[in-house]
Amino acid sequence: GEFANTTVLSPFLHELGHKYHYDLIQELAKLQNLSYNKAEMYIEGHIMEYVRTQKSFEPNFVEKELSNYAKFDFHELMAEWFASSKESELGQFISNFVSGVIV
Question: 0.90 cut: is pTM over it?
Answer without folding.
Answer: no
